# Entry
Amino acid sequence: AQSVAQPEDQVNVAEGNPLTVKCTYSVSGNPYLFWYVQYPNRGLQFLLKYITGDNLVKGSYGFEAEFNKSQTSFHLKKPSALVSDSALYFCAVRDDNQGGKLIFGQGTELSVKP
Amino acid sequence: GAGVSQSPSNKVTEKGKDVELRCDPISGHTALYWYRQSLGQGLEFLIYFQGNSAPDKSGLPSDRFSAERTGGSVSTLTIQRTQQEDSAVYLCASSWDNYGYTFGSGTRLTVV
# Structure
């Protein structure tokens, strides 16, 4: 069965510092991986996805993620964090069985302090 | 429409009542998914529609939960005899290719 794990419930970063939000995956077959962000009282906003191709994926708002097959990881990164990046971040994997529903991690709360 | 629309945005209901939550997907998106986000929990898959049929209902937590989709467009998630543990945010997503997903803003359900 497909699954993703986000090992950190919370990540704290100072504004201007680089940030990393971790995600590891377990899949049978090709992994199709996604990152979403959720601001308070809002729905999920798409950041980026890995389907195939370059291991470094660039997405919205300056975020990027690196697909690492040997480590089965897909960590989200940003070179310089902003206070406005503070939100809940979800990693997800597409389930190839039956219509491609997304299987989500538990989420990581990112807090960026001035 | 420009995005996925969900209504109502907030719903407070008494325990034991039935509720209906509506999702209006992006026009032309044939796939539609319902998820539930409970406090302190991640996002839990409920049901998937392709057109009007639901080939995957594996996430519905009990027979009190049902959903339908008509005209390949609007979907309604119905919860009968609501319980307090049903309190959550219910999110809908649609997709045209099952690889790109657009989420609505959700319905926050509170059962009192």
About this structure: Chain B has a mean pLDDT of 93. The radius of gyration of chain B is 13 Å. The first strand of chain B starts at residue 5 and ends at 7. Residues 34 and 92 of chain B are 5 Å apart (CA to CA).
